[in-house]
Design goal:
alpha+beta, four-stranded mixed β-sheet, 4 strands, globular, disordered C terminus
Length: about 80
């Protein structure tokens, strides 16, 4: 089983379904992740066992809805 331990900042951003934590049985062990609010927004994941870092782009935040975005573009 693969376990990903996230910071509150990332949890607030992705709103995942939370499950019980445990120990990973994969060769890279547990993973830790945080959100980096750069342009574009990315998630930084780090392997506990090897300290291997991965940068993964986050999907666009659509909490404001597409209508808010289309209104801002219609002004131009």
């Amino acid at each position: 089983m693969f376990y990903l331990y996230c910071t509150k900042k990332l949890l607030d951003r992705i709103k995942p379904e939370i499950s019980l934590s445990g120990r990973s049985d994969t060769s890279l062990g547990n993973w830790y992740a945080t959100a980096l609010f750069w342009k574009p927004q990315i998630a930084l994941l780090v392997s506990e066992r090897t300290l291997l870092p991965l940068l993964i782009p986050l999907a666009p935040d659509l909490r404001n809805g597409p209508s808010a975005r289309s209104q801002s573009h219609s002004q131009f």
